[in-house]
Write a structure and sequence with these properties.
By secondary structure, the protein is an alpha/beta fold. It is built from twelve helices and 13 strands. It has helices at residues 17-33, 54-58, 63-66, 84-90, 114-127, 148-152, 178-181, 197-212, 215-236, 260-268, 291-309, 312-319, and strands spanning 10-14, 41-45, 76-79, 95-101, 103-104, 110-111, 130-134, 158-161, 172-176, 241-247, 250-255, 274-276, 280-283. Helix 9 (215-236) packs parallel to helix 11. The structure holds pyridoxal-5'-phosphate.
Length: 320
């Protein structure tokens, strides 16, 4: 079902997002090694998040996650997100793969510029570099399409998927184009529970709900409504909300201050929110969310922001 509904030819199943990243990294290195054993470098983006195992932690270019866990896996370079010139300057004959999120999630809900993605795609084609999109947070309907690469219109060679793919049952997946996938031969990679019938059955139900029972269409419609709602809140609270951004049901508002107090006040009123990156409140509601629920959320947040604006937030931002 995954290959039928995406641009990829083969899938490797595992049990989590971090495992999917490990599988993708190994696949990229083997694909490159078959051409040139020296082609081992992987370029990841600054401020990324890809997981907490050693390979995935190495490509997670945020010091706070790596601190006290070094040394990391060798031959991984970091480049600033959305800066094509910087990325191009790091590419050499040794570059095996470029890895990025289509929207940086943990890093603060930062969407990739489509131009940056297109130029990177062209560079990867020119130099036979594997382009990997980590769709662990952005995939499975989150942006209103099955995967966010579809929303932005740039097709990579490999994507990783996990999180909601089996509706809460542990699963991860690496989806690859045949050209890259064929680098793996039996025994190269594996996992006892990868592709187990329970998780895959749950995954089939999720995909059926998304594609055939209206969940994807709902996510698209509600994603637009959430975007408008957050823009309206920004217009109402211009001193506290610096920017509203994101795609579909993966959105964030960047505040002019620390979000902790606002989040806590919302939680007290029954609205569960979570932060991301620096000063960002993240909105990743269930894909079955309805407009009434989004409106209730906006009312609570509006009240909390109004109350808060007379307090510490504004004062803090003046000092920044
Ligand atoms: C973009 C991205 N990649 C990888 C991961 C790691 O997934 P897992 O927690 O299933 O290992 C996450 C988890 O938040 C993520 O958001």
């Amino acid at each position: 079902m995954l290959t039928e509904n995406t641009d990829f030819d083969r899938v490797f199943f595992c049990n989590s997002g971090a495992e999917a990243i490990e599988g993708a990294l190994k696949l990229c290195r083997k694909y490159a090694a078959l051409k040139d054993p020296e082609k081992t470098q992987i370029i990841a983006m600054e401020n990324s998040f890809h997981g907490r195992t050693y390979g995935s932690l190495t490509v997670t270019a945020q010091p706070k996650y790596q601190k006290n866990f070094g040394p990391m896996v060798p031959d991984v370079l970091y480049s600033p997100y959305n800066d094509f010139e910087a990325l191009a300057s790091k590419v050499t004959d040794k570059t095996a793969a470029i890895l990025m999120e289509v929207i940086q999630g943990e890093g603060g809900i930062t969407p990739a510029d489509v131009d940056f993605l297109k130029k990177t795609r062209a560079l990867c084609d020119e130099k036979d570099i594997v382009l990997v999109f980590d769709e662990i947070q952005s995939g499975v309907g989150r942006t209103g399409d099955l995967y966010a690469y579809m929303t932005v219109g740039v097709v990579p060679d490999v994507i990783t998927s996990a999180k909601g793919l089996a509706g809460g049952v542990p699963i991860g997946a690496v989806l690859a184009k045949e050209k890259v996938a064929e680098a793996f031969t039996p025994g190269d990679h594996g996992s006892t529970f990868g592709g187990n019938p329970l998780a895959c059955s749950a995954g089939l139900v999720v995909l059926d709900e998304l594609l055939n029972n209206g969940v994807l269409a709902n996510a698209k419609e509600m994603g637009e409504f959430l975007g408008e709602t957050l823009e309206n809140l920004k217009a109402k609270h211009p001193n506290t909300i610096k920017e509203a951004r994101g795609l579909g049901l993966m959105r964030g508002i960047e505040l002019t201050c620390e979000p902790k107090e606002i989040i806590n006040k919302c939680i007290e009123r029954g609205l569960l929110l979570v932060s991301a990156g620096t000063n960002v409140i993240r909105f990743v509601p269930p894909l079955i969310v309805n407009d009434n629920q989004i409106a209730i959320m906006a009312d609570i947040l509006d009240d909390v922001l109004t109350e808060f604006e007379t307090g510490s937030c504004e004062k803090e931002s003046i000092h920044q």
